[in-house]
Design goal:
alpha+beta; 5-stranded mixed beta sheet; two-stranded antiparallel sheet; 6 helices; 14% strand; elongated
Length: 306
């Protein structure tokens, strides 16, 4: 009797052990299969044909269904992005020639013998054409950034050469308005895309010139542990407190700037560029009546990641 019980116990134990080992191996095979599917999905090589559904557990089958759906969605997104890229390229290309022609014929008219009224009309045409050119260029850039067509390529970059280029771009316009431009030397570096960062800083500096009638523009940079801060200060009219939270919105024009030329896209584009690199922009402005010409009224601070 004891031998029979012992034999039966051994058989039951062996069966249980075999069952455990079988399930462990089956579970391991399932995990290996899932890992393979995930790796192929990550590498972009996943296809339904790579797997035999008869081998799948329920979990594997569900995961295969999900990855197949995700793969199709990713391909659809890629196709839509390619179409958008082509559309943006077409818009950019097809509008360049008409705008260039408008400028050319406007300048030819400007050099002709015209009445004062006609000269004023031609000047208005040229101004609005330049405004249209800037708007289309800005919208194309913004669309490329927001759609991911353009990837910001960040690397350690010295900030001072970028600021020098910006100053060179705004100096002529500033001089025409009798404004001084000051640039404080710095050895600060940041982890940024230099081309697009220069675009963002220029948009803000250009606004400073546009909305400053007397005094100066001062550009400087300060180093912190996590960020390099670029300050652009002006002695202009300032930004009302109620407008300050809204100025980075697309096409927003504050009540104090509606009389000035502009489309309300430059600051929005600047914010998209800087935030796309892990940075941010702050503004501080204290509009003061009859402020001294050398007293900063508005300062935009651009925080660039180090």
């Amino acid at each position: 009797m004891n031998i029979g019980i012992l034999t039966a116990s051994i058989v039951i134990f062996a069966g249980a052990l075999t069952f455990v080992i079988y399930n462990r191996l089956k579970l391991r095979r399932t995990f290996d299969s899932i890992e393979k599917m995930l790796n192929e999905a990550i590498e972009g090589n996943f296809t339904v044909a790579s797997f035999d559904e008869s081998r799948f557990s329920r979990l594997e089958a569900k995961l295969e269904e999900y990855l197949s759906s995700a793969s199709i969605s990713a391909q659809n997104v890629k196709n839509e992005k390619d179409k958008l890229k082509e559309l943006i390229s077409d818009i950019s290309h097809q509008t360049k020639t008409p705008i260039a022609n408008l400028v050319l014929y406007g300048e030819l008219l400007e050099g002709s013998e015209l009445t004062e009224e006609q000269k004023s009309n031609v000047k208005a045409i040229l101004t609005q054409t330049e405004k249209l050119r800037f708007l289309i260029d800005s919208l194309v850039k913004l669309s490329r950034l927001e759609s991911g067509i353009i990837q910001l390529e960040r690397k350690k970059t010295e900030v001072f050469p970028i600021l020098q280029n910006v100053v060179e771009q705004i100096r002529e316009r500033a001089a025409a308005k009798g404004l001084e431009v000051f640039l404080n030397e710095t050895d600060v570096s940041a982890n940024i895309d230099s081309k697009w960062t220069q675009e963002a800083i220029f948009n803000i500096a250009d606004n400073a010139v546009k909305y400053t009638d007397k005094g100066s523009i001062t550009i400087s940079a300060t180093e912190f542990d996590m960020f390099a801060r670029v300050d652009i200060s002006d002695t202009g009219k300032g930004i009302p407190e109620e407008d300050q939270p809204k100025i980075f919105g697309r096409f927003y024009r504050g009540t104090s700037t509606k009389s000035e030329e502009g489309v309300g896209i430059g600051l929005h584009l600047a914010r998209e560029i800087i935030s796309g690199q892990g940075g941010y922009i702050k503004v501080k402005s204290n509009p003061v009546q009859n402020a001294a010409a050398d007293e900063p009224v508005t300062t935009f601070s651009i925080f660039l990641p180090k």
